[in-house]
Amino acid sequence: MTARILVVDDVVANVKLLEARLTAEYFDVTPAYNGQEALDLLLQQSFDIILLDVMMPGIDGLEVCRRVKSDVRTQHIPVVMVTALDNVSDRIAGLNAGADDFLTKPVDKLALTTRVRNLTRLKALNDELRLRSNTSINAGGENDTKLINVNGDNGHILAISDSVNAIDSLARQLTDHGHKIDVETDPEYVISHLSQPNTYETVIVNLHLENFDALRLCSQIRTLEATRNLPIILIAQKEDKKPIITALELGVNDYILDPFDHNELLVRVRSNIQRKRYTDQLRSEVTETIEMAYKDAMTGLYNRRFMEMHLEKLTKEAIENDKKLSLIITDIDYFKSINDTYGHDVGDLIIREFGKLVEKNIREFDLACRFGGEEFVILLPDTDLRVACYVAERMRQIVAAFPININQKPHIIGLTISLGISTLSSDVKSGDELMKKADNALYKAKRTGRNKIAA
Amino acid sequence: MTARILVVDDVVANVKLLEARLTAEYFDVTPAYNGQEALDLLLQQSFDIILLDVMMPGIDGLEVCRRVKSDVRTQHIPVVMVTALDNVSDRIAGLNAGADDFLTKPVDKLALTTRVRNLTRLKALNDELRLRSNTSINAGGENDTKLINVNGDNGHILAISDSVNAIDSLARQLTDHGHKIDVETDPEYVISHLSQPNTYETVIVNLHLENFDALRLCSQIRTLEATRNLPIILIAQKEDKKPIITALELGVNDYILDPFDHNELLVRVRSNIQRKRYTDQLRSEVTETIEMAYKDAMTGLYNRRFMEMHLEKLTKEAIENDKKLSLIITDIDYFKSINDTYGHDVGDLIIREFGKLVEKNIREFDLACRFGGEEFVILLPDTDLRVACYVAERMRQIVAAFPININQKPHIIGLTISLGISTLSSDVKSGDELMKKADNALYKAKRTGRNKIAA
To answer: Which is nearest to A326 in space by CA: A362, A373, A272?
Structure first.
């Protein structure tokens, strides 16, 4: 993992020192000697990480950080604040300004490499997600990416230590600052517990467990599907340099040396939670966008495109595996005249209500889609004609029995639907034929009086 | 980076050896002693990597590999074949069976850790993409993920060595096997060249460059936007253990020891290209899916949802930055009667042709969308009313002048469109008002005879 790093400090010697250390590790370093120069460089070149001194004449580090984090063009670049050891207020101010991590002067080599490598790895993942979530347009030269605002407050934390006493003051500190913390003493239980979906946002592991190898525990947490992206903070002693390096190689995100400064603890926990929330948000935006490609916006059912993508394939699989498959096409009787009489808003309301009804009356693995206008298609795997007709008839009865409240006079409208049903057979051997057969049946139901099912 | 590894070998001692080495590095190892057991375990648990012996009684390693790679449930799991040193044909057969990488018996510790770590890292990225590209449904319990078929043939390769002689026979080997290879001797030129978009699928770097630090070169290739995901293969000597480890830490993907076996070279190049193509394909599937969420399927223009997402924001930005912004709403005159007369197919054809015309007549940063039916909306940043009217009038004239060929009698249909135009002003200060104003203008154009623009 390598990266382009912008090092910002008004003291030339400090820049040179960081530059030498990072270059020796094959990082690509660009120096900047004041805040304005840093901001200018950020708009001209692309960087992976910013190392930022707090105290600078002119625009100080906190202000640079604030500007980086409030600009959509730079928000995604991790910022590491470099602060004096005893300056707790700078760290808190840095976090409030949006900083992602902290280094203490004089900068320890291990700490430097750790933070930088870790943020590089996380940025690579975030870049990948960002590219996908970027639904921006470049209209009039304006970039349209969204700012993501997350903090690291009120987190849900799991602390693992086989001595409750050792972790007690830590837990109290975190609770006092608004976090919810669970303490576990049995590593075996932790593993079985964490393999289930959970709401933890950070896990703190004591490196010195009596009866369990803490690194193996970290490794297991990292490999479990449910906790792959869960930040791990290790509590270690000053002399634990070697296991710390191994831990970081395993994907542990951060470490705190015991005895620890309480503010250091709070700041590290907060920044790990914040980073996790940032990535989670990116991830869920991508997921939402992808859902939109396959869902009908009005009803939340699948759209026609999705049905067309899957119909032939599912039909082919059903035939190959000698399984049953049925299809229902339904539409709302006289919908056009309802639309003309009561207006589009009422028409839309009815479509939505009918969509809900369809969803409630099918199984989880049935595939319901709004095919267009007031027409819906439902694909029922493992279902023969008799059962499909039963499902269709049940829907018909429910619609006919429960008028819809439209919040205008007249308050309720009685609706009916017609339904056409088809199933795989020696005559019907493709998705296309299923659709045609059901469509013909629907036409028959309509022609012979509506409020009917036909097969 | 840690991982769950399935180790498959019928010789218990071999399994134990690999297990011991991997467990020492905190990998999570599950053993299997024959092909069937491996296949059963793969369906019960989830694994990150499979280490697979070729020679086994019953279902041999090649067959296990083939089945893993042809099953959508397991295709994404990297397979490392473990082969005898001199068995070239096993390796080729392995690649043909879909193997991702190779290890030679007796397994070297560095080689083992390298391959496993590398594949773990790649799998983490692929998993993230796979989750997004997974537009599958779970209908009837059938998983519907697509199989991705890529090979590593006919690649485009860049080889970097400051002595052309040294790389000559390598280049010839690769060319003889259908790859296209460019040889570069000047690392500085390579960097400036690779920072541009390029079609390389793998780069081979000679560790022993005379006048340049090859590791720094690798690091730069890894940090360049355009080559972030480009596989790097290092050519090193047996005594280069330390720089090889550094290189792998920097993100170099693979290495070959010189003097190298020609088949080893071919197999490594092929498998790196194959892995890149797999990831690229996943990535482009996600991108396509996301595009679908914002594009109108019929015309390829943006859809209504996208316009609605961006209209207010772009309007607000234009006002804040004191810039002009205009909007055109247009629809096809008498479209419904065309649809009724010639049928839906002709109607759809006309919509598509009109969409193309709109696209051709706007600038890259204008925002055109199909708003619904035969109605289109175009947002023109940095454009005043006079220019917007000019754009609208030009479209009107083109449509009126060129009838559309519909491939049925009558062969061509003459069309006209009407257009309403609005622009930001002291009266019009929001996206909503822009739309209303343009809609009123369109209504005026229709009412006063159609085939007109109005503002």
So the answer is: A362
